[in-house]
Amino acid sequence: MLAPWGVMLPNFNPFGLDPWPLLEVARAVEDADFDAGWVGDHLTFHPPIMDATVALGAAAAVTSRMKLGFAVLLAAMRQPVWLAKSLATIEQLAPGRLIVGVGAGGEHEPEWSAAGADLAGRGGRLDEFLSILPALLAGERVDHIGARLNVHTPPLAAAVLVLPPLVVGGRSDAAVRRAARFADGWLGVWLSPTGFKRSCEQLAAFAQEFGRPSPEPMLLAFAAIGDDTANCRDHAARLYRAQYNLGYEAVERWTLTGSVESVADQLGAYREAGARSIALIPARPKLLEQVERMADVRRAVGA
Predict the structure, then answer these.
(1) What domains can you pick out in the chain, each with its CATH number?
(2) DSSP 3-state of 275
(3) Which end of the chain is more exposed for a tag (fewer CB within 10 A), N or C?
(4) ∠ CA 219-181-121 to the nearest 5 degrees?
(5) pTM score, two decimals?
């Protein structure tokens, strides 16, 4: 498995925590024996947000064992050669620990305009980027002329010896198909266990079509854990308003709230639906306490 249990590190700051606890939480996640720490990506969004590549590089400096992954990079928004160099640099700082997660991501149009990127063509641009990413990471000369992406680069000095695992995120049919075509894992979010199982079945069918092994199904889930269920729900609602400008009623059915036992039961349903790896997003402001509760959940669910 790529990373059986992971936690999203706070490079987003929807609760306005001061000081920003990214490094403290990264250390705590590794100390709690999680397999991975993940970061999200946006140029500009509703809450304050750190650059994903810089944040993961900083997490690499204060950890030594756990995997470090993107959940997920908006690669189609970024210049591909610079991005490949950043990824190769993180891999050199944390050898064998990087997981490259990418997604199309188009929910916030102003950031695409700010980046000078094409929102409408992001899916095709992402596919072309993924087709040349192995060569870029390996430091090879790349001359690519595509429908949406032109890349001409000499060999890059910052290169990786072993390509890191690739994960594609998204719940659309296009995202699942992209994962089957290119990736080692597929990361689903905001899906019921039934919907997750359906996507896993699609993933296997698409992989067979491409003549590839089926990528590993991975779940990304928001979790607000505690015996004070009403406060859990309130904290989750605050997070969604601050981070996504969403009402809680729109995402309540996909959010894990309640006691350790209740959240473990909910995750058990996703395990049965096919989730082989799980990444949890803390949805309460006391992040270190939530990391402890998430470790309790992991023990309750079992390997």
Answers:
(1) 5-301 (3.20.20.30)
(2) coil
(3) C
(4) 90
(5) 0.97
